[in-house]
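Schema walk-through. Below, the input block comes first and the output block second. Nothing else is stored per chain. Lengths vary across the set, and this one has 114 residues.
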Amino acid sequence: MPNVLIHSATALPFLVIGDYANAIGCVAPDIVWIPNEISIRRSRKAVQKVIDEFPEWRILPYRITHSALLWCLMGPSEALLGALIHIALDCFTHKRRMRQQPLFPIPWRWPCTL
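--- output ---
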């Protein structure tokens, strides 16, 4: 839940200036995670335990939408800046299996987390 609030907060400046595409970009990378989040909440297990039990195909869409490399390769997008802000914040806050791979499909992982 805290990440949703942080990403929503990053969208606010874009909303104020009327840049709706980048506001959406601030939260868009997490949309593919919604089915996993529902599974996590329904399981009543510890979040990390559920994530560790997910098969890789359930994590793959998340890796794709959190790849700065793929966002940039798609070319100029009106939501690009918002998405890159989202990915940058996640680089410092996600650990263990969810540690960011901002150059996905290159298997390098972001080394520093808070």
